[in-house]
Structures are given as C-alpha cells and as structure tokens.
Amino acid sequence: MSVTENIIRADVRSLAAYPVPDASGFVKLDAMENPYTLPAGLQDELGKRLGVLALNRYPVPTYAALKAAICDKLGVPAGFGVILGNGSDELISIVSIACAKAGAKVLAPVPGFVMYAMSAQLAGLEFIGVPLCADLSLDVDAMLAAVRAHRPAITYLAYPNNPTGNLFDADAMRALLREVGDSGVVVVDEAYQPFAGDSFMPRLAEFDNLIVMRTVSKLGLAGIRLGYMSAAAPLLKEFDKVRPPYNINVLTEATAAFMLEHSDVLDAQAAAICVERERLSAAMAALPGVAVFPSAANFILLRISRPELTGAQVFERLLERRVLVKNVGRMHALLENCLRVTVSTPSENAQFLAALESSLNFRTV
User: Per-residue pLDDT tens for 25-76?
Assistant: First the structure.
C-alpha cells in the first residue's frame, strides 16, 4: 500500500476537490458574485487604510470592534453577539466539529448547499438529505418525520436556498424549530439575505436552538472571505472554543470595517441586482422551452424543457459563446436539465441572454 492509502481516510480519498472552473475570458455567471466594484474614491480610501496596517502583528483575537460594527449595521438583535468565520464554510465546519458527538446526525433538504453534507462527513457525522417537493418547495411533512426519526444534532435550512433560489415557507421553518427543540440546533443559512427581503435574524429571541448564519460574499465582498453567525450566548460560547485563533486576517478585518462605514454603497448595488433579477427572469421566461423558477437570491434557476435539447447541451453551447453558468443538472434528480445563472450587470445580462437565445437555436449571433 502507498503512504496515501495508509494514512488518508478512505472516504476522503474518494472525495473530489471542490470544483472551481477557470473563468479567464468568460462572462462569469457561475458563482453568485456581486459584479460591481467599488467606486474609485472608495478604492483609494480603502487602499490608504490597508496600507498602514501592522501586517507584522497578529489580529486582535476577539475582533471586538468588527463584531460590534456587524451587530450595529447588519440587523443583529440587541443582546445577541456574533462569531466570525473565514467565510460561511468555516462556520459550517465549526458547528459540525462542535456537535460531532458519537452517532450525531445532520439533516438538510436536498438539493442544497453541498458543504452541509461535506462538512458533516469530514467531522464524522451522518448526513441525511430530505428531498424537496417537485416544485422545489420545502417538504415540511417529510422534514418533520425525519426530525422525529433521527433527532439530528444539526438541521440546515438555507433561506433562500441554493441552488434553487427560493424562500422556504417561514411557518414551516418555525414548525421545524419547535420540533427539533432542545435536541439539536437549526442553522438558518442566510447567505443571500441582501436580496431576499426577509430574515430569521429578528426571530433569534424566539428560539434557543436557532443559529442565523450569513456571509458578506454575496453582498459584494467575496474576495475577503468573511462569514458571521449569531445565536443565544451559551451556544456562541461553545462554538467560539472551536474557532481557530486569529481566523480572520487583518486585511479582511479592516476591509469589512471600512465597508460597514459605507454600507449604503453595497445596499444600492444589491438593489440594482434585484431589479436586474426581475428583468432577467422575465426575459428568460419569454423564451420558448425555458422554465424559470422564482428567486429571492442573486441568481436564477432555469430548466431547459425542450425534448430535443438538454440542459447539459445548452451549458456547453454557452461555454462556446464564452459565457460560464453553473450546470446543476447532475446535483440531484429534481434539477434535471437545470442551469443556475448569476444576476450580473445589465451589459453582462444582455450578453448572457443573447448567448442563451443563440444556444437554443432561436437565432445566431
């Protein structure tokens, strides 16, 4: 046997690394990024602030000032705090590690964010996926039955969901929070909250088992990798014990603090994306053979519904036209022939629509 076979877990060896395709030269609409950069004046001001940082020193390990700014600017209820992660991925890992008692289980609707299952597996937790309904809504009866049968330590509910883009029924989610009770935690993942119009953050005081998780990536700061989550103080105290020391670097800390001072810029960008989302959804829905699902995120899920053409074929034709979207058709049977497209600027959205129309053989470009 090789060294790798001797020392690496078999389930890890069987995994594929998280795929990130090369997007050089493409209209990049596959990763739910905010397409807008900062205004030149803010770029200069931020550069000056970053230029004087003490890069030779570790960050202040409590991140007290940044956490206070997040609580003040981003709607965390009074009396609740946050802990920070290197993106939501690290927060998911922290929750998994902290809850990884022998025999513990993780529950989530599927299709959903792939890191819920992957993080569970890496922490030695059993993952249980409960399929959504055919219309991609939450199957609340199946979820309640799964909670009763498995008593999961962690239940994930993305709000809105990725890759489907929809908001699950809030009353159904509250029913699940009550059913889980004190036997586990329910993580409401609000990565796309700036585009959603609703949040469970104000409901933290209602449920001792509720965790609300967010990221600034979709808001326009994907490059700094910052996530935060809030919950009742006893839970945050335990999760903070698992958090690696100095997990947020000083460049991320300073950039986030700066942008919270100028949050109106990011809010305006999010509003512009929401306007484009509705315009792009309507334009795609008008194309014969394209079914568009409702979205409360900064991306749109569509299904190619022409018998002579598959979603995978349209994906490849878009690549030929230098437009990169996400082919989600292989993720789950419910997503057959589905593609996910990030909502971008009016110009890039127009390029995508032209490429999509051409890929559907309605006209050539």
Answer: 899 999 999 999 999 999 999 999 999 999 999 998 899 999 999 999 999 9
Confidence of residue 262 (pLDDT cuts 50, 70, 90): very high
| DSSP state, residue 218 | I
> Global pTM?
0.94
32 phi and psi angles, rounded to 5 deg = 55, 40
């570790």: which residue's tokens? Answer: 58
Using CA atoms, how far apart are residues 73 and 118, in angstroms rounded to an integer? 32
Q: Count H helices, E strands: the chain?
A: 13, 13
Beta strands 154-158; 126-131: pairing state: unpaired
DSSP reduced 3-state for 307: coil
Q: Is 129 helix (H, G, I), strand (E, B) or coil?
A: strand
Q: What is the DSSP string of 142-198?
A: HHHHHHHHH--SEEEEESS-TTT-PPPPHHHHHHHHHHHGGGSEEEEE-TTGGGTS-
| Residue whose token pair is 């998994």 | 96
Dihedral sign, CA of 12, 15, 21, 22?
Answer: positive
- DSSP for 257-302, written as a single string: HHHHHTHHHHHHHHHHHHHHHHHHHHHHHTSTTEEE---SSSEEEE
- Could you give the CA distance from residue 313 to residue 241 in angstroms, rounded to a whole number? 48
Do residues 295 and 165 make contact, with C-beta atoms less than 8 angstroms apart? Answer: yes
pLDDT digits (tens, 9 = 90+) for 187-227: 999 999 999 989 999 999 999 999 999 999 888 899 999 99
Q: 303 has which bridge partners? A: 291, 338
